[in-house]
Design a protein that fits this description.
The structure holds 2 protein chains of 2 kinds. Chain A is built from 16 helices and 19 strands. Chain A has helices at about 15-30, 65-75, 85-100, 135-150, 215-220, 255, 285-300, 315-325, 345-350, 355-365, 420-440, 450-460, 470-485, 490-510, 520-545, 595; strands at about 5-15, 35, 55, 115-120, 130, 155, 160-165, 170-180, 185-195, 225-230, 235-240, 260-265, 335-340, 375-380, 385, 400, 405-410, 570-575, 580-585. Chain B has 2 domains: about 1-105, Ubiquitin-like (UB roll) (Roll), CATH 3.10.20.30; about 105-235, Fumarate Reductase Iron-sulfur Protein, Chain B, domain 2. Chain B is elongated, with a radius of gyration of 21 Å. Classes of the chains: A alpha/beta, B alpha+beta. The complex binds flavin-adenine dinucleotide (FAD), iron/sulfur cluster (2 copies) and FE2/S2 (inorganic) cluster. FE2/S2 (inorganic) cluster (FES) binds near residues 57 and 72 of chain B.
Chain lengths: ~600, ~250
C-alpha cells in the first residue's frame, strides 16, 4: 500500500483548546508544526464548553488569587491531584486568559469594563471568565484564528491510528489516514503532542461528541506510556433526561451559578441534606441564606454570606440526584428538577443562559423562563489519562507529550467546573513550548517502512471482511454495557463481569463489517474508534475494580466511604506489557510544607 | 413506535440518487437521530458530519425538504408536519459546495476565506477596558458556529458562483466582528470592498433568515459595513477628515 510521507518538528494530534494552544506555542518557538484532527477545524469538543474558564483574575472579587484557586482545585480533587500541576495551573491561568483577550476573545465585562467572572461549584470566589453560556466556542474560535495565522499546517479530517517508535521506544512520529479519501500518511516528527480529549463516548448517557473514543489514551497505552487515575470519571449532575434522543446533553453548571436550585418531586431542595463532612460549614444552611447569596451576586455585590449547596462539587451533586431518584423522589422521567424560573427574571435568564434557553425550547419543548428543567447525571469528563511531567507535559515515553483532557494529574479524583478550559491553555502552551525545545535537541527521525506497512495493513483489514456485524451495533451494545456495569455507582461483581464482557467485545470488533468504501466511510471510521473504546473501557474498569473505596468520580456501592488509609495517598498506574493491560499502585507525592499550609484538608490518616 | 420514510441522497462527487429508508421513530427524535439509526441498523457506510448534537458546532448542515438547516436541531415531529401528505421527506447535501459523498461536502473554501481575513490587531498592553455594551456589538457575530448554511443559501454563491469575487455572508460576519471590536486598530474597509466584494450583496436577507445562531447578518453586519464603504469611498467630508487625521471616523 502506498502512503505519503511528511516531516515535522512537532506534530500535534488534536485541534481542541489544548492542541491549538500547543501548536501556536510550538510554532512561535520556531518549530515546523502540524496539527492533525478528526473533524473540521473548530468543531472539536472544546466548542461545546459552556460555563467558563477558571482563572484567579480577581476582577469580580479581589479576595481571589492563585493560592485560593490552588486550594479549591486540590480540595475538589480530594487531594489526589499532582500538586505541582495544580500550582502551575493556578499561577498561570490568569495570564493565559488575558492573552486570549488580545487574540480576539470578547469575554463578558464587569461594570468597570474588565473580564467578568462567574460563580461555579467548588470555587470559593467568582472565578470563571465566560461569554454567556458559550465560552468554549469563544475560546476555540479565538485559538483557531490565531492558529491559522501562525504558520501551522493543518490536516483536518485525518485520524491518527498508530504512533511510531524506534528501538528504544522513543516516539518518532505517527501514521494517519485521511477520512475523506482513505489515503494513508506517515509523519516523521521529533516530538508528538497528544491533545485528543476524552473517553466519555464509552457510556451511553454522555455529554460528549463522537470523537470522545479515547484515541489518545489508547495510542499512549499501546506505545508503552503510563496512564493514571483511570477510575475517575466525572458524571456531571445535570444532563438532559427527556426526550430520550437528547438524554445526556449537557445543562451547564452556569444555571446553578446564576442561582438555579435543585428540587425533588416533593418540591424539597435536597442539597441541604447532602453536604459531605469535608464541606460542612462551607455552604448556606438555609434557603434564606442561599437566596441572600443569589441576591448579592446578582446585584454585583461582594458576597458576605455562604453560597447555595447546589454549588457543591459535581461528584457530590450527581450522587445526591442519583439517591433522590433511587429512593422514589425523582422527576417524571427519572431525574431532578432544576429551577431557574423561580429565581431570576425571564430577561436575565435569556441574557445569561441563551443557549440553554434555546436548547430546551428546540429539543425538549420546555421554556426555562417559565418551567423547571429535568436533569440527571451524564458521563462528562475523564480525570484519568496519560501520566505527564508537570513542567513539560512529556509522558513516560520520550518524545511523546500530552495536554488537555487526555493528560492526567491536575484534577485528581474530581475536576472542578471551569478548570478544564484553563487546563487546556496553561498546559497546552507548556506542551508546545517543551515539544519545540526537544525538537532543537534531536535529529529528524528516520521511519521504519516495515512499521508503517504493518500499521496500514491493520487499518485496511476491516474493509476486506465479508459478512459480520454492523459496527454500529457493537458500539451501541458496548456503551450500554459500560453504562450498566461501570457507571456512576459501581460494585465488584459488575466490574468483574464488565471485564469479561470487554474481552468478548474485543473479539466482536475484530469481526465487524463496515463495507468496503474508502471514501468517507462512517462505518470504517467507527471500527477504528471501537478498538480504542474497548481498550480504554478495560483500563477504566480495571482501575475501578482495584480501588476499594469511594472518592470523587469513583463510587463503590460495596465500599461507600473514602478510605483514610492507603487509598488517600495512592495512585493507580496502568501500562501495557506484552499486549496485556496491567495495573499497579504508587505512593502519591505530597506537596511541600509551604503549599500544604494553604490547604484546609481534614486530617488525612487515622 | 411509528415508522417514517425519508429519501437521502447517496453517491459520490455529485453522481448518485435519492434512496428511500424506513426508520422507526421514538419520541423527541431529531433528523440526525434518523441518520444515525440508518447507519447503525441498515447502512454502515452512509456518510454525514456531526459532533455536538446540540446546535453548537455547526457540523451537521444539510438541505432538508430543500431548506438548509442543522440536522441535530430539526425535530422529526416538525418535519413530518411540514411535509405534505403525498410527499416524502428529502435530505440532500448542501448544494453550493463541491460534493464528496452522501451528505458530506467540501467546505474548504470557507476556511480559505477565514485565512484571508486579517486577524484582530489591538494594543500591546493587557487588561483591556471596555463596557458590556461595547462587547455585545462584537459578541453577536462571535456566536457564529460556522455551519455555512448562510453561504449555502446566498444566491451570489449558490447561483452565480462568485467564489473568487465575494466572501459570502459568513465572511461579512467575521469582518464585522473585527470592525466592531472596540479595540481593533486595523483598517478593514478596503478589503471589505475589494477583496471580499461586499458590493455583490443585494441585502435580500436570505442569509439572515436561515442562520441557526440567529445572527442578524444583513442588518447588523452587512449594512453597517456597506455604510462604512460608502462613507470611505463616496463621502467627501469624511475623506478629507481621514487625510488630515489619518484616523477612522467611527459611525
Ligand atoms: C458540553 C460540555 C460542556 C463543557 N463545559 C465546560 C466548561 O464550561 N468549562 C470547562 O472548563 N470545561 C468544560 N467542559 C470540558 C471541556 O470542554 C473539555 O474537557 C475540553 O474542551 C477538552 O479539550 P481538549 O483540547 O483536551 O480536547 P478536544 O477539544 O476534545 O479536542 C480533541 C481533538 O483531538 C482530535 N482527535 C481525537 N482523536 C484523534 C485521532 N485519533 N486522530 C486525530 N485527531 C484526533 C479531535 O478531532 C479534536 O480535534 C465541557 C465539556 C462538555 C462536553
Ligand atoms: S443578503 Fe447578501 S449575503 Fe445575504 S444572502 Fe442575500 S446577497 Fe447573500
Ligand atoms: S453566520 Fe449563521 S448561518 Fe452563517 S455560518 Fe455563521 S452560524 Fe452559520
Ligand atoms: S452536530 Fe453540532 S450543530 Fe449539529
Amino acid at each position: 500500500m502506498t502512503f505519503e510521507s511528511h516531516e515535522y518538528d512537532v506534530i500535534v494530534v488534536g485541534a481542541g483548546g489544548a492542541g491549538l494552544r500547543a501548536a501556536i506555542e510550538a510554532s512561535r518557538q520556531g518549530a515546523k508544526t502540524a496539527i492533525i484532527c478528526k473533524s473540521l477545524l473548530g468543531k472539536a469538543h472544546t466548542v461545546m464548553a459552556e460555563g467558563g474558564a477558571a482563572a484567579a483574575l480577581g476582577n469580580a472579587d479581589d479576595r481571589d488569587g492563585w493560592k485560593v484557586h490552588f486550594k479549591d482545585t486540590m480540595k475538589g480533587g480530594k487531594y489526589l491531584n499532582n500538586w505541582r500541576m495544580a500550582q502551575i495551573h493556578a499561577q498561570e491561568s490568569a495570564d493565559r486568559i488575558r492573552e486570549l483577550e488580545q487574540w480576539g476573545a470578547v469575554f463578558d465585562r464587569t461594570p468597570k469594563g474588565l473580564i467578568n467572572q462567574r460563580n461555579f461549584g467548588g470555587h470559593t470566589y467568582p472565578r470563571l471568565a465566560h461569554v454567556g453560556d458559550s465560552t468554549g466556542l469563544e475560546i476555540i474560535r479565538t485559538l483557531q484564528e490565531k492558529g491559522i495565522h501562525s504558520g501551522v499546517d493543518i490536516f483536518m479530517e485525518y485520524t491518527v491510528s498508530h504512533l511510531l517508535q524506534n528501538d528504544d521506544g522513543t516516539c518518532t512520529g505517527c501514521v494517519a489516514y485521511n477520512r475523506v479519501d482513505g489515503a494513508m500518511h506517515a509523519f516523521s516528527s521529533k516530538s508528538v503532542i497528544l491533545a485528543t480529549g476524552g473517553i466519555t463516548r464509552c457510556w451511553s448517557v454522555c455529554s460528549g461528541s463522537w470523537e470522545y473514543t479515547g484515541d489518545g489514551h489508547a495510542l499512549a497505552l499501546n506505545a508503552g506510556a503510563e496512564l493514571i487515575d483511570m477510575e475517575f470519571v466525572q458524571f456531571h449532575p445535570t444532563g438532559m433526561v427527556w426526550p430520550p434522543s437528547v438524554r445526556g446533553i449537557l445543562v451547564t453548571e452556569g444555571v446553578r451559578g446564576e442561582g438555579g436550585v435543585l428540587k425533588n418531586s416533593e418540591g424539597v431542595r435536597f442539597m441541604f441534606d447532602n453536604v459531605p463532612d469535608m464541606f460542612k460549614g462551607d455552604h448556606a444552611e438555609s434557603e434564606e441564606e442561599s437566596n441572600e447569596w443569589v441576591r448579592q451576586v446578582v446585584a454585583g455585590e461582594i458576597a458576605t454570606v455562604r453560597r447555595p449547596p447546589e454549588l457543591l462539587t459535581r461528584d457530590v451533586v450527581a450522587k445526591a440526584i442519583n439517591k433522590e431518584v433511587a429512593e422514589g423522589r425523582g422527576s417524571t422521567h427519572g431525574g431532578a428538577y432544576l429551577d431557574i424560573a423561580s429565581q431570576r427574571s425571564p430577561e436575565e435568564i435569556i441574557s445569561k443562559l441563551p443557549s440553554m434557553h434555546h436548547q430546551f425550547k428546540e429539543l425538549a419543548g420546555v421554556d426555562i423562563t417559565k418551567e423547571p428543567m429535568e436533569v440527571g447525571p451524564t458521563a462528562h469528563y475523564v480525570m484519568g489519562g496519560v501520566r505527564v511531567d508537570a513542567e513539560t507535559q512529556e509522558s513516560t515515553v520520550a518524545g511523546l507529550f500530552a495536554a488537555g483532557e487526555v493528560a492526567s494529574g491536575l484534577h485528581g479524583a474530581n475536576r472542578l467546573g471551569g478548570n478544564s478550559l484553563s487546563d487546556l491553555i496553561v498546559f497546552g502552551k507548556r506542551a508546545g513550548e517543551f515539544a519545540a525545545k526537544r525538537a532543537t535537541e534531536v535529529e529528524q527521525p528516520q521511519l521504519d517502512n516495515a512499521d508503517i506497512d504493518a500499521a496500514i495493513a491493520a487499518n485496511l483489514a476491516p474493509l476486506a471482511r465479508e459478512g459480520g456485524e454492523n459496527p454500529g451495533k457493537v458500539y451501541d451494545e458496548l456503551r450500554d454495557m459500560m453504562q450498566e456495569k461501570v457507571g456512576i455507582i459501581r460494585k465488584e461483581a459488575e466490574l468483574e463481569s464488565a471485564l469479561e464482557d470487554l474481552k468478548e467485545f474485543a473479539t466482536r470488533v475484530g469481526k465487524t463489517n463496515p463495507g468496503s468504501s474508502m471514501i468517507y466511510n462512517s462505518g470504517w471510521h467507527q471500527v477504528m474508534d471501537l478498538t480504542n473504546m474497548v481498550e480504554i473501557s478495560t483500563a477504566c474498569a480495571l482501575a475501578a475494580l482495584t480501588r476499594t473505596e469511594s472518592r470523587g468520580g469513583h463510587t463503590r456501592e460495596d465500599h461507600p466511604e473514602p478510605d483514610n488509609g492507603m487509598w488517600s495517598h495512592t495512585t493507580n498506574v496502568i501500562r501495557k506489557i506484552d499486549g496485556d493491560i496491567v495495573i499497579n499502585q504508587e505512593e502519591l507525592i505530597q506537596p511541600p510544607a509551604e503549599l500544604e499550609e494553604l490547604l484546609d484538608r481534614v486530617k488525612k490518616e487515622d | 413506535m411509528t415508522d417514517v420514510k425519508m429519501q437521502i441522497f447517496r453517491g459520490e462527487e455529485g453522481e448518485g440518487e435519492m434512496v428511500e429508508y424506513t426508520i422507526g421513530l421514538d419520541e423527541g427524535m431529531v433528523l440526525l437521530d434518523c441518520v444515525h439509526r440508518i447507519q447503525h441498523e441498515q447502512e454502515a457506510e452512509l456518510s454525514c458530519r456531526w459532533n455536538c448534537k446540540a446546535g453548537k458546532c455547526g457540523s451537521c448542515s444539510a438541505e432538508i425538504n430543500g431548506k438548509a438547516r442543522l440536522m441535530c436541531m430539526t425535530r422529526m415531529s416538525d418535519i413530518i408536519e411540514e411535509t405534505p401528505e403525498d410527499e416524502v421527506i428529502t435530505v440532500r447535501p448542501m448544494k453550493t459546495f463541491p460534493h464528496i459523498k452522501d451528505l458530506v461536502t467540501d467546505v474548504s473554501w470557507n476556511y480559505e476565506m477565514a485565512k484571508a481575513v486579517v486577524p484582530l490587531k489591538g494594543p500591546e498592553e493587557t487588561d483591556w477596558v471596555f463596557s458590556q455594551f461595547e462587547a455585545e456589538r462584537a459578541q453577536e457575530f462571535r456566536t457564529c458556529i460556522e455551519c455555512f448554511i448562510c453561504q449555502d443559501t446566498c444566491h451570489v454563491l449558490r447561483e452565480y458562483r462568485k467564489f473568487d469575487e465575494f466572501g459570502g455572508p459568513r465572511t461579512m460576519v467575521r469582518l464585522a466582528n473585527f470592525e466592531m471590536h472596540p479595540m481593533d486598530q486595523e483598517d478593514r474597509i478596503p478589503e471589505v470592498k475589494d477583496e471580499f466584494g461586499i458590493g455583490y450583496c443585494n441585502i435580500n436577507k436570505c442569509c439572515t433568515d436561515v442562520c441557526p445562531a440567529g445572527i442578524n447578518i444583513t442588518d447588523n453586519a452587512i449594512i453597517p459595513l456597506k455604510e462604512r464603504v460608502v462613507d470611505r469611498y463616496y463621502d467627501p467630508i469624511k475623506m478629507i477628515w481621514r487625510t488630515i487625521t489619518g484616523r477612522k471616523l467611527r459611525t
